[in-house]
Amino acid sequence: MKPADPRFFFRKLPSPVLSPSKEGFDSKNTYNPAVLWHRGKFVMLYRAESKEEAITGRIGLALSEDGINFVKHPEPVLEPEYEWEKVGVEDPRVVRVGRTYHMTYTGYDGKVARLCIATSKNLLSWKKRGPVFEEFPFERDGKVNWTKSGAVLVEKMKSGPFRGRYVMYFGDSNIWLAHSRDALYWDYEPEPVLRPRGHLVEPGPPPRINPGGVLLIHNEAFWRKKELVYTVQAALFDRDDPRKVLWRTEIPLLKPELEWEKRGWVNNVVFAESLIEKDGKMYLYYGGADRYVGLAIGMGEKREVRPE
């Protein structure tokens, strides 16, 4: 059965909406953002790296009236503190749970990338909750406890085996599913729910429920002529059992095409982590070549995403 086309006719802006500063904590790379609509503004939380240091990530903040022109906050809002994140805090994804914002991010100690959580009331000051899982026995390149990143479905499941619980897709060698009553303490399912068709697969923006199921925009990397190429894809999961895949895209939503997507800190990368619906448009924010933040806007007719 041929899958329905889930694309929203995304059209990229030709230039990045965020670039490195001349100096400071984000002077080398600014990429892989979480973006939210908060109190009349687009709020971006982005991964930042300094050309003066080997730290692989701090989290910076920038504001915008129109979602395109951003003004940066002068200091990072999240920095490495603990042993499990001593080399970097990376790749935020943010959802609002009740009156509290929950950020999932990668804590990197130089060897293992762990999925971590922080919470905030104002998006500026954050309370770290530590790694989500004390132990995760499935190996990635011979390393255990590698959980990397997670994307939380903000509304609780209304039916099925996880009724009354939040669900989260996480991982980057495969994608697994976790579930929670409070979006803080999580249990994971032992079998992956999405496996790579190439080199790896990793969650993108927080998933969304539509009439056809649970839509997860995600990132996949494939080898092309001895080069690793990152693309943005989508999968639809069953609305009652979010472990069950109904279909996956065969044609990427986004792929590296522009020069600043093909050449940067890591070449040939488009990597999405945030999707906002505002005024009838879909704003898909992504990292370009691990150096810039790009934006693709859904300009076409919005359609229900479901299997045919």
What descriptors fit this protein?
mainly beta, Tachylectin-2, Chain A, four-stranded antiparallel beta sheet, 21 strands, single chain, disordered C terminus, 1 helix, 308 residues, disordered N terminus, five-stranded antiparallel beta sheet
Q: Which CATH class applies here?
A: Mainly Beta
- Helical content class: under 10%
Termini gap: 7 Å
CATH superfamily: Glycosyl hydrolase domain, family 43
Mean pLDDT: 93
Provide the number of structural domains: 1
Strand count, sense and barrel status of the largest sheet are: 5 strands, antiparallel
Beta-strand content bin: 35-45%
Output the helix-strand order: EEEEEEEEEEEEEEEEEEHEEE
Assigned CATH architecture: 5 Propeller
Principal-axes geometry comes out as globular
Helix count equals 1
Q: What is the CATH fold-level name?
A: Tachylectin-2, Chain A
Low-confidence sequence ranges: 1-7, 300-308
Structural class by secondary-structure content: mainly beta
Description of the molecule:
The chain is mainly beta. It has one domain (25-297): 5 Propeller (Tachylectin-2, Chain A), CATH 2.115.10. It is 1% helix and 45% strand. It is built from 1 helix and 21 strands. It has one helix at residues 259-262; strands at 10-12, 29-38, 41-49, 58-64, 70-72, 88-97, 100-108, 113-120, 127-131, 150-153, 166-170, 176-180, 187-188, 200-203, 208-210, 213-224, 227-237, 245-248, 270-278, 281-288, 292-298. Strands 14, 15, 16, 17 and 18 form a 5-stranded antiparallel sheet that branches. A 4-stranded antiparallel sheet has the order 1-21-20-19. It has a 4-stranded antiparallel sheet with strand order 2-3-4-5, with no helix packed on it. The longest helix is centred in the last third of the chain and has 4 residues, at 259-262. It is globular. The N and C termini lie close together (7 Å). The model is unreliable at 1-7 and 300-308 (pLDDT under 50).
